[in-house]
Each structure stands twice: as structure tokens, then as C-alpha cells.
């Protein structure tokens, strides 16, 4: 069972980190070449059962025999504002409204959490779109260590794509780094009023030393990069000084203060998350004005044993947002 802290507010935190400008359209960091992306995330198992001929025709990478036969899965390719192709899967129920799902660090649209959430939204009759950020999965571009604000811009490109198709993005959801991305999006674009942050980081410097080792700042300034390696010695990815500073200078405190009061934000976090500590979820609750916090007891970072509860909380919040929007329209 989870612990729901409804509209949880505390006095603002004194934590302030160096600022990176995520809000200007002139914000463009020139990232150096990064190599050898290898995903550490487990892919969800593919079902041998064919779902529908439309799925096979569009090249969808995962199928679920329990999905409604009326659902069409389509591979969608769109371009971001850097000209890179972004690849996603549209779970089209025919609804005008659409929920966009954003994956985390070194992850893809094919993780079990992304697929399970899309499937659950289907059953509610809600169209869902899960896609790969640039440099991840099937999308074009080079993998970057930081890239928080640029991924928020990728999300904007996806929202614009569906807007041009006369569809309305009713909610955005991000897991882990994707949670940061949806919050940064809300702080910059102010056009989505239902935002779900699942296990996002409040302090973006967190976890860096664990990945890069002690003295990482001195090392990257001396050598210009740090190669993150597997136990076998294989290079997993390269972190340049510029991409590292992109991450360290992304200020979630400042960004969250820019989120509109009429934007409803839900933060979901696992109490046993060893990657992003649950205390960081409390920090979001302190400063986001229209915020709800739900802590799932016993859940880890990936909610590997708590997918059903995660889905239940997400669907409940999306319904709540929808009802609130309908009441405001009256």
C-alpha cells in the first residue's frame, strides 16, 4: 500500500544550486561526441501472440495479448528542433486527448514501466505515446550525459507534432530523469496542466560521484572527459566536461518555482528507492504550488514489484485532472 500525502506543502528549501538557463529559446549547449551507448535497463519480454495486423504493419516492438483488439499501435517518426528524428509508439484508442510518456537516463520507450503505463491508458480509452529522446533507443542523435533542457525541448517537439494533428496533450509523465524533464517542460512552456513526476531527482548532482568516482570534477577538467566503464572494461558512455556541467547546473529548485499554480503536479516515489532517495520527493512537495505526493511503500526506483500500484495512482490522478478540467470548462 502507498502513503498519500495530499497537497503536501512545507516551507521552501534553502537548497540552491548553480543555475542553467532552461527557459530561453537561445539555450543550446554544444555537446562533444559521446560514444558507446549501452542500456542497463532490462527490456520487457515480447509476447509471441500477435495483437493485430495493424501492429505488425507499423513495426511496433512490443505486443501484449491482453490489449484491446481495437487499439492501433503505430510507429511515429517526428523531428526535434535540431533536425533529429525522434521515434515513438502511438497507442491510438481514437481519443482526441493523448498522454505522453518519457523514459529515464540510459533508457528507452521499451522499458516495462513505459509499456505497462501505455497499456493501462489504452484500457481507459486514452491514447498514449511513448518515445525515445534523441540519442536513445531508435531515435537519432548522440547520447548525452546531461541534456535535461534539450530533452524538454524534444518533448515540446512531440507535443507540437500532435497539436498539428488536432490532438490535445492532456498529461505528461516522466520516470527518473524523465521526471525531471516533464517538470522542466512545465516550468518553460506552461501549456500542459497535468504533470506526473515518477522518481525524479531534486538535486541533479546526486548520483554523479557514484557513477564517475571521487574527484570527478578535477579529472574531467584535466582530461576533458571521463569514460564510464563496465566491469569488463568496456566503455559504456563518455562524459565530457560540458555535458557534466549541463547536469550539475540544472537547477530543479529554480525550475519548479516557475511552474504555474494552475498546473497540477503529482510526484510518485518509492520508499525503498536506492538510486534517488525518497527525501528528494519531499523537496518537490515543498516548492511546487499545486502538488500532490504519493509514496509507495517498499517500492524501488523501477517499481519492479509495484507496477500495479504505480499504474493505479497514475490513472487516478489523470482522471482527477480530467474532471477538474471539465469543471473549469463549465
TrEMBL record:
<protein>
    <recommendedName>
        <fullName>Serine aminopeptidase S33 domain-containing protein</fullName>
    </recommendedName>
</protein>
<feature type="domain" description="Serine aminopeptidase S33">
    <location>
        <begin position="95"/>
        <end position="203"/>
    </location>
</feature>
<dbReference type="Pfam" id="PF12146">
    <property type="entry name" value="Hydrolase_4"/>
</dbReference>
<dbReference type="InterPro" id="IPR029058">
    <property type="entry name" value="AB_hydrolase_fold"/>
</dbReference>
<dbReference type="InterPro" id="IPR022742">
    <property type="entry name" value="Hydrolase_4"/>
</dbReference>
Amino acid at each position: 500500500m502507498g502513503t498519500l500525502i495530499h497537497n503536501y506543502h512545507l516551507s521552501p528549501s534553502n537548497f540552491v544550486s548553480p543555475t542553467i538557463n532552461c527557459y530561453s529559446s537561445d539555450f543550446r549547449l554544444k555537446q562533444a561526441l559521446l560514444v558507446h551507448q549501452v542500456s542497463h535497463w532490462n527490456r520487457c519480454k515480447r509476447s509471441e501472440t500477435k495483437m493485430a495486423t495493424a501492429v505488425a504493419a507499423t513495426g511496433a516492438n512490443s505486443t501484449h495479448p491482453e490489449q484491446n483488439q481495437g487499439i492501433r499501435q503505430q510507429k511515429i517518426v517526428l523531428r526535434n528542433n535540431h533536425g533529429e528524428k525522434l521515434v515513438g509508439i502511438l497507442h491510438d484508442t481514437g481519443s482526441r486527448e493523448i498522454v505522453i510518456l518519457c523514459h529515464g537516463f540510459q533508457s528507452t520507450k521499451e522499458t516495462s514501466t513505459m509499456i505497462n503505463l501505455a497499456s493501462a491508458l489504452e484500457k481507459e480509452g486514452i491514447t498514449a505515446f511513448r518515445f525515445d529522446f534523441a540519442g536513445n533507443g531508435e531515435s537519432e542523435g548522440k547520447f548525452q550525459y546531461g541534456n535535461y533542457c534539450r530533452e524538454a525541448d524534444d518533448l515540446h517537439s512531440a507535443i507540437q507534432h500532435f497539436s498539428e494533428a488536432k490532438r490535445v496533450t492532456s498529461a505528461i509523465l516522466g520516470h527518473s530523469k524523465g521526471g525531471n524533464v516533464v517538470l522542466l517542460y512545465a516550468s518553460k512552456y506552461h501549456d500542459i496542466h497535468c504533470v506526473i513526476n515518477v522518481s525524479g531527482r531534486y538535486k541533479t548532482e546526486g548520483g554523479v560521484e557514484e557513477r564517475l568516482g571521487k574527484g570527478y570534477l578535477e579529472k574531467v577538467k584535466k582530461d576533458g572527459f571521463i569514460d564510464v566503464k563496465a566491469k569488463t572494461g568496456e566503455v559504456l558512455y563518455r562524459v565530457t566536461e560540458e555535458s557534466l556541467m549541463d547536469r550539475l547546473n540544472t537547477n530543479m529548485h529554480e525550475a519548479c518555482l516557475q511552474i504555474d499554480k494552475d498546473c497540477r503536479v503529482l510526484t510518485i516515489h518509492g520508499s525503498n528507492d536506492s538510486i534517488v532517495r525518497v527525501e528528494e520527493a519531499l523537496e518537490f512537495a515543498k516548492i511546487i504550488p499545486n502538488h500532490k505526493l504519493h509514496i509507495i511503500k517498499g517500492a524501488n526506483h523501477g517499481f519492479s514489484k509495484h507496477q500495479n500500484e504505480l499504474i493505479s495512482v497514475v490513472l487516478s490522478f489523470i482522471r482527477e485532472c480530467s474532471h477538474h478540467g471539465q469543471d473549469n470548462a463549465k
